[in-house]
Amino acid sequence: MKDRYDVIIVGAGPAGIFAALELAAAGGLDILLLEKGQGLERRSCPVLTRGIACPPCIPCDLVSGWGGAGAFSDGKLTLSPEVGGRLKDYLGLPALNQLIGQVDDTYRRFGAKDHIFGLGEEVGELQRRASLAELRLLPVPIRHVGTERCREVLAAMRDHLAPRVDISTGVAAAAVRVVGGQLQGLETQDGRVIACRHLILAPGREGTEWLTGEAHRLGLTLHINPVDVGLRVEVPAPVLEELTSSLHEAKLEYYSKTFDDRVRTFCMCPQGEVTMETTGGSDPVITVNGHSYAERKTGSSNFALLVSTTFTEPFREPTAYGKYLARLANILSGGVIVQRLGDLREGRRSTPARLQRALTHPTLGSATPGDLSAVLPYRYLTDLLEMLEAMDRLAPGVASRHTLLYGVEVKFYSSRLELTPTLETQVPNVFAAGDGAGVTRGLIQASASGVVAAREILQRLKVKAGA
Ligand SMILES: Cc1cc2nc3c(=O)[nH]c(=O)nc-3n(C[C@H](O)[C@H](O)[C@H](O)COP(=O)(O)OP(=O)(O)OC[C@H]3O[C@@H](n4cnc5c(N)ncnc54)[C@H](O)[C@@H]3O)c2cc1C
Predict the structure, then answer these.
(1) What is the pTM of this model?
(2) Best probe residue, ligand 1, of 48, 74, 76 (max atoms within 8 Å of C-beta)
(3) C-alpha dihedral, 21 to 26 to 29 to 31, nearest 10°
(4) Ligand 1 centroid to residue 396 C-alpha, Å
């Protein structure tokens, strides 16, 4: 590591990696990519490898390290400007569409498969049936990379970047140095001070709290994003087969009768596995997530069901609110609670014996059978139960008493930094990209946001992109 760079990038998730790819392609720049987690091959999650309860590890190998949260992700590349972030607000639709195409091409160049889900003729009929069930089905083209292949793609990107960019893993950024409103450089947690002309902050959801803290310290404006709280739902794979075989992931939206809240499906994992993850930096909580592997299939499919609520003033802490709910589940169960839908409706907890009688096989063996009504507020439970009933009309069996619910799933979209259309913060030459900046929520838009910041830097340095 040198003591001065043209550009420092914080975070080696999709946003940081795509920024590095763009900058490196121009040639002739000194670039440092700083990542607090481990290198790709050293990342391993004990919940996945040993089937134990989440310890938890700090940092969590599931969401930290080369590849960021994307490394263990299911690799569903959603090729639509309507999902996975709000870059449309910054770039406009035509520019975002073009950028999504370019980012997708890059994923393919590094090994993503050709097949795209969600383009078949049957999609129109599914949309029609969804509307009869009071659901909106958003048709979204999806390229499914698969969890194992996702790592291969990320390894290929690293091998390409290694001779062109200084990559430093296991080193956390501690503070952005700004003097008199001008960027000076970055301080690392191990006490180094590195000077730079430009900085791209892409710390992901894992780095949300750090970034928010830096924003407060530097006096940057933050906007409140909605809080997304919900459950992971697991059903026998045939229940979702009609949807997943043509769409891979059905993006369904519902507005609840009782509260008029928006409830949506998220991250559908056909024949996949439910997982745990640790998020929240120095004050971590254990939450639920899901994967599906390209080659390793299970008999169950899972998806998240999330309620989006925008609370108003004086509410300012969406992350603290989400963590509070997750912590309730952690206190009661040591991690994640699993409950049969039938037990929840009957007002009783699930027990190991009751769980054994469920037709759905629980793929997260280390979840504790319990009672989710002791965790989620009435509003959320009502919204979620209503949506399950609506989905049952589209995919019979979703609201069966054998359906398994894991809680809680929280998406820390955090606060959103005030950014220009090129994703520059209020400090000149400091850019923020990806999920941590609150502008994206998925692989494609996170990657695209890194490209946006990098292109603006190249423009300022008068270096041609892709030169
Ligand atoms: C299990 C799972 C499955 C998913 N599946 C999908 C999917 O199928 N499709 C999809 O579109 N999205 C999926 N996602 C979401 C997707 O992975 C994220 O949207 C995406 O990775 C965000 O990219 P990012 O670069 O903004 O942040 P991240 O990928 O979170 O990367 C940020 C990186 O910054 C590092 N960092 C944080 N703070 C610091 C610091 N202070 N110093 C140095 N480094 C720091 C972190 O360790 C991390 O490696 C999934 C996520 C998970 C967890």
Answers:
(1) 0.87
(2) 74
(3) -10
(4) 33
